[in-house]
Amino acid sequence: MASDHIYIRGLRVMALIGVLPAERLAPQPLQIDVEMDVNLAVAGQTDDLGDTANYGAISDAIAALVRASSDILLERLIARIADCVLSFDHVAAATVTLTKLQPPIDEDIDSTAVSITRTRQSVNPAVRHRAIVALGTNIGDRVAHLRFALDHLPRVVTESQVFETDPVGGPENQDAYLNMVVALDTHLDPYALLRLLNSVEAQAHRERTIHWGPRTLDLDILFYDNITINDDLLTIPHPRLHERRFVLQPLSEIAPELCPPKWDTTVEAGGVHARGSLSNLISTTEH
Description:
- The protein is α+β, with helices and mostly antiparallel strands and about 290 residues long.
- The chain is built from 7 helices and 12 strands.
- The strands form 3 sheets. Strands 5, 6, 7, 8, 9 and 12 form a 6-stranded antiparallel beta sheet that branches.
- The relative contact order is 0.14.
- The model has no long low-confidence stretch (mean pLDDT about 85).
């Protein structure tokens, strides 16, 4: 194990948890504390977020998982939290403490808690899921918004280059978009992942006032493993994927097998221009 540590302390989230009937009716406060074993030597030299565990993204992922949970036992929920933490790059081991702050016990008691330690080797890789996510932005510092999103997404394993595209639909006179597509590995279920993406959009000051209007950050789940979902909250695969070249072009770079047949000749080509990899774009050129 690494001798260096990163801590998340006092993360408080409301969640359904417990055996008693009353506990199944309303969320109750939980506190999550995490100690992660991370080798910080490289980040200490490079000053690069990519060389360490992003505790902001990890905190967001934990909170999304806990809010979406309806587990009965703390033991079950804490195991899933540990798996989530270990899904992030650079985390070699994690000690997680999960505290129920208002346990429904007649005795005078402040809280109850469970604590576990898990290593990366103990995680079953079968519980990870592959999600494909599209990113778009056309307000403000567009490159910075894309970088912000990547910093807050769990375990990005592949990313396309960035494409500049003309607006499609929505009000007239919008500025051009920057678009890209990434593949990520996650322990979150599709709905928890959706909540995480919405949270990242909100942190980037996304406003939903105009349908298909300009936005600081837009994050869409295109695929999640090979499952199909079609309900009021989520549709997977994305329903308009086949008609959007600004999605298909970057998607073809990281998962060409997921593109519809002959898309490059049947989908209108105008207004999509490669800008290169995100790492090579300089945010100070954006206004």
